Structures
1.
Amino acid sequence: MNFKNKMSSVLIAPAFLWLIALMVVPCVMILVLGFFQRGIYGGIEYNFTLENFQLVFDSLYAGIFLSSARIAGTATIIAVFIGYFAAYAIATSPKKWQPTLLFFAVLPFWSNYLIRTYAWIVLLNREGLLVGFSKWLGIDGGIPSILYTESAVILGLVYNYLPFVILSCYAPLARMNPDFREASTDLGASNFTTFRRITLPLSVPGIAAGAVFVFVLSIGNFITPALLGGGRFQMIGNVIYAQFLTANDWPLGAALSMVLIGIMMILLMIQASAAQRSIGQKNKEQLDG
Amino acid sequence: MVKQPYFKRRLSVLAFVFAFLYVPISVLIGLSFNEGGLPTVWSGFSLKWYERLFQNDAIINATINTLIVATVSTVIATILGTMLAIGVEIRRKNGRWLESIIFAPMIIPDIVLAIALLSMFSMLDITMGLDTIIVSHVVFNLAFVCSVVRARLKGFDWSVVDASTDLGASSITTLRRITLPILMPAIISGGLLAFTLSLDEFIIAFFTSGAGKDSITLPMQIFSMIRFGVTPEINALATLIMFASVLALSISQRINRGVVS
């Protein structure tokens, strides 16, 4: 046993050290960096200060945080709404079709994120298909292109994360015991009431997982605002990037990152603990039953 | 026959969702074969844009860089990740913190890791380039290889290892002759997964590549190209990449599944 443990430590050590050096240490460094002063020509002065955090909660950056949250929130609501109904439609399809439908719903997720986003530039730009199509329909001068607006960013986020919502909502729907719904209908509930009182509450874990995922990845998103929002339009991820690479204010960038990472981690942890609780409850139900 | 209520409504929901998911990609693929290159006019089938692609030096250099990054980081991650998986599984009990450190790279959003690595490299005054991209990619590749190999180890019959030791084989011989051959499909599958992830990865590469032109990977090249608008060449490139990654992932899944079943 002792020998096995020794060998196991030898096997674990290289990967473990790698993760410590390139994941744990960098994350700790961000935590520390935010409390230092910015040097006059960029770089860092090692004097303790809280002014970076004062700046974060200053109107400019707090405003960017709020607008990022608003965009991420809107994208989340739309993605969850569409994704849930898609998952519901798949889960109520004939059993033999379900794996295929699910496979094709998730397939786009396997292709490159940049390319999926680029596909919308192709569709939305001023010489693009949508504007061309509206001209062909005879709308005078065509509808204006929404590319490089907030709507385009939201659309891109919804498009990119929809497959994940479908997947996470499908899981509880497929597991759901059909007897519950039948019992409800037999007892005289309308289809809508059955949906509202039985199906929807039972699918909450899937909806929550999908929503948290979309929100977390949207609020910290860097690619979609840069591409579909044009340069004019900034979300917090882009601002952080600029602090590190163009504005050269690393401590402020670190402080902004810390707040962003904090928001993300809190949401992910709430979701993880909620999921754990629902699994615990399920086990308990099985034991009781 | 079970009654299927709301058949039409369900069908229209599915039609809408699948159209939403596939029209943009299909338009992109279609346009890459469009002779004239204009998005609104179809002027005939052509492979012109694909040929153009192979004459573009920037794209070829970026492709070479990407292959270097993906290959080196996959090799490192496959070796370390497999060792990690075996090490973790032969242990009686693992601390929670060890488990969380192993899982963390799969859960942490890319942007977080990217920012953290960028600030560390900047603070330590490390010149960034292909090497910093490679060591950064190993972080998440490692976690994926480890989880694929561990899944295979869960169904592993440890008595063959004991048998080998009882028959007098050294632990190295046992590892080489018994454990590794049994694990090989999972190792290859995990490695392919890591390779694909690394080929596609943009954010971490973008943040840890430094300013040099020599360290531009293909996704970074695509990013800078599409910021300036639509060209038929990018359509062709995008089409190729989409097919390549879907193909690699299907192979990876098939190798692993073929053994399990």
2.
Amino acid sequence: MKNNKTYFKRSPLPKSPTSIQGLDEITGGGLPKGRPTLICGGAGCGKTLFAMEFLVRGVTEFNEPGVFISFEESEKELTANVASLGFDLKKLVAQKKIWLEHIHVERDETEQNGEYDLEGLFVRIHYAIETIGAKRIVLDTLETLFSELPNPQILRSELKRLFNWLKKKGVTTIITAERGEGSFTRNGLEEYVSDCVILLDHRVSEQSSIRRLRIVKYRGSTHGTNEYPFLIDEDGFSVLPVTSLGLNHDSSIERISTGIPRLDTMLSGKGYFRGSTVLVSGTAGTGKTSIAAQFVEAACNRGEKVLYFTFEESSSQLMRNMKSIGINLEPWEKKGLLQFHATRPTLYGLESHLTTSIKLINNFKPAIVILDPINGFMIGENETEVKNMLLRLVDFLKMKHITAFFTSLTTSGENPENSDVYVSSLIDTWLLLRDIEIGGERNRGLYVLKSRGMSHSNQIREFRLTNTGIELVDVYVGVDGVLTGSARLSREMQDDAEKLLRQQEIGSKQFSLERKREAMEAQIIVLRSEFEAEESESLKIIGIEKARNESFKKVKAEMAKSRRGDAPLKKTIAKRTKYKRK
Amino acid sequence: MNIKKTRNNKLVLSLYVAGKTIKSIAALKNLNFICNGVFKGIYKLEVIDILKNPKLARINQILAIPTLIRNLPLPRKNIIGDLSNRELVIAKLKYNENSL
């Protein structure tokens, strides 16, 4: 009981943890300890693997030895089959941690004569349990006995006795059974094993298979009641109880660069939020993957790990293509910072994709996860399913503070804002790439459709793929509207020419004005010198005239004096003073 | 273990029992009656108690108790149950490969 973890504190029922990813969460701690659990499902749905993993994990993680009684496969077959999941049964058997026993009855050789019981089975199980001190036991497809042994009535009562006996022994038991029509098992075993019934299902929808698990019944314990997708891969069994996740993840205020300086500027100068969900959508060939690659390169440069799921291109093709725009991702992949995971979306079902992704993310522990593109999942009318899957993935990533970067291919013609409506509510930062067709050419425009929690640019930028990466250029906004590409270039050139012309005009105007000023000043000089010459001439004449005047007066006075001599002088003196005043 | 030997072993039988349960005792009683009556002198019977020797249960794939195994003559035959239908048991044990 030491290892018993109870998920719900109030639950008094002791549980035996399975350590199967996700299952302990939905069962609230594991299978009922010391009681039988029935695992039923159709052929090939993973019953045996489930049971085997329960045993092996019991040994490796909880040091609880286990007995595997197989009614179908021989010890050799079993060992070989689960070796593919990385379970080394041979070693565990040699260490006496696991007891493998194949029980089979040759139908042809056997006949009934009189009453019998299954004491042989009891003895063998008892012996196995005692030998290794088992705490867990698996009876793999007990129902085979019904076809091997005569007299089902005896079998039924014996099996009932077996379950009670195992319960008394206090070993946690898994009994697997084939699913019957209209009932969980073909022979109604669920009537006897009533503590916990888990149903495994393997169905095909839209040509891809989905494995699901459902806990039909769990006596004395609460449990998740939904159908949970599960996956069997090289690491064994994993169940995905993602719908149980709540919206209570912490949000980071850390910002990470987009790898494109101008785009950072558009997102209030710093880039995306760490742990946010970014969607880049656009029509074919608008450069979604390039934006992703640029983001990847920036992240790797910072030393962050990136997990890149590509659903359209192989990793080598993607790397080759990105080289053409100057983004070399190869060194990062070699360094182990970048991991590609290229699969066709149709390879397996949505749930499997989700479980695989989550497994890979858990193993690789990236800071950034890229899904390129998410449309591949859309087959027919499964929008809600895709949304559910992405919702689960986004929730999971947010909980882990992993930045998610999705690309989405939108079909041209429809309004791009509407094209990804089914996921838009999940997205924190949504970049839209659209092509702008002007003047016989197609150019790319980028704008930020939304970006939660930051002031972002409302401008359309022209998006250019150059030899040295992505470049964002201001579009030409003028009287003719928004221009891009060569239209923008020619318009800009035209503008430049006009500007030059105007500058030249101003220059020449200024020059002629200067010339005029110079001419005017020269004229002024000439006029002044003329005037000066005239002035001096005039002054000279004035001086002469004055002198003449003086001398004339003197002469007149002398003459008067000499002529008359008797005339009073006063008058003349008065006249002279008058003249002087003038 | 309870081994009965005869000079001429034409019929080699093993009876698997688990302790002294009613069915086991009944089977042994029935078998002894048959052998001593019909197959007197030509049979060899081994009674194995799997409680005492559980490994043998695994080796011989014993599940139902009691189980009677006809090791010889071939083909091998298993009869499960307390052998209460003695005539049928005789018929089964007599039955051999030549008549196949």
3.
Amino acid sequence: MDQLTRSDMNSTDRTAAPSTNVGFALRRLFRTSEALRGYILLSPTLLTMIIGLAMPLLVLFTLSFWIQEYLDFIRTFSLKNYFDFFHKPIYGKILFKSIRISGLVTLATVLLAYPMAYFIAFRIQRNKLVWLILITVPFWTSYLLRVFAWKIMLGYNGVINSGLKSLGFITEPLAFLLYNPTAVVITLAHAWAAFAILPIYVSLEKIDRSLLEAARDLGENAFMSFVRVTLPLSMPGVIAASLLVFIPTVGDYVTPSLVGGPSGIMIGNIIQSMFGKALNWPLGAAISVMSMLTVTAMICLFLWGTHSFRRRIA
Amino acid sequence: MKTGRTWWRPDGFLVYAVAYLVFIYLPVLFLPLFSFNNSKYIAFPLKGFTLKWYQQMLNSPSMLEALMNSIKVGLIVALLSTILGLMAAKAVTRYRLPGRGPVISFIMVPLVIPEIILAISLLILISQADIPLSLWTVGFSHLLLCTPFAMLVLVSRMEGFDRSLEEAALDLGENSWMTFWRVTFPIVLPGIVASMLLTFTISFDEFVLAFFLTSTDATLPIYIWSSLRFPTKIPAVLALGASIFVISFFVVSFAEWLRRRGVKMEATSRI
């Protein structure tokens, strides 16, 4: 920090006499090269990210080509882990299931959030901030406890079972509510709700209201002006919301562990076990690399899909 | 908004909005409910009111230590990530940088990568470098996660204010350091406060990175995670959760009150 500010000061301190030629040249460089000064200011952040992000991902990629032997690695290039990944169907199946679960979560979250965001953006004239705060308050609770709350809701002696029992609909608690993929979808859709509402709300709020009036004046009915004006213009928010929900939930570890049961296992649990009980870091690394590639491919597909959808309706 | 009134009755949306609020509030409201329930089992029917779980919470040294650990890590991470975010935000908004787009995308990568993958990559690097796992490694991982958020908040604040104010200060003979302290910093201050609150919250609630990158020192989420397996410990955890909720409510209200006062002062000083 100190060094940076001094270089910054040098650049504007025009009265300082050059002590040496090198110093003079450096000072001139600072003064003239905006890019250099910018990058110097940026360098601590960039360095942190290189050490903490680029290097670990590189090491992860390298490790995926090594082989675990007891507590050590065989450090020669091998494709064994990738063969394992493709030959044991369980990994691919669970990865596919994780993507399906996250896809459902994303769909549910965005579909549920859109009318709510629309309501705040278009129907609430005053106190929009109060509504936005009202939506974020439940999310101040710890993520773990929010997930745990669904155990209380869906559990054997939970809210739903007790409620149905006291109303006389059932005599024995329903055991199938918890510990399955549906419970994972519901819990995740609840846990990530705010992440969907806020971006959609922002993109709806930005829409120029006169465009809607123009559409109505030109004879579109309310529904068609929504489909042809509001919806396409809010797509950036919908896309951001989808990515904000989809990407983190694919790798979620907490929710499937707490409410998923054996049938609700997701790829995060597999990766964790490779670094824990199963103790096969290289295979875990290969599964992670494959997950990242698959998620990236899904995102590209999604972006391409929304792009062509937007062109068609606009 | 008059145009929307004719399709859908206005009540339809309001009903939906209320139903949605019930959906997001209902599960969460059962947590404080069970923190007052006189039974160690989290199940219906309720067994009567008690405060003993709050007492147990105050008498649990391991829980309080985890809480302190989380606060320490959170404060350091909030401070450092906001400094890194501020420097990066100034660099990308105030200088013409070649390769600005790719650099910003690179810094934002932690936002679009599943946390578990970030966690294991860091675990591999740290173990290969023979660095012992501790709260410092947890803090470092949180720094990576929080810096992009800090930068996003601060970039929007930096873009929002008039550059000519800084130029005026420079023209009037302030050097760039003093310009930063006397012009930029006060204007960006609300952004800095927002960034600190956001990054502290993220770090405070972060579980997966801490789960992989700590050894024996637990952060609060790690403590909660391990108690969720022991039913007898859960009510005290719920009591702590409820207490944290109430405290954060007051902190956020206080911050909002400060912000409003700041806005008012800004408005009057302009006149």
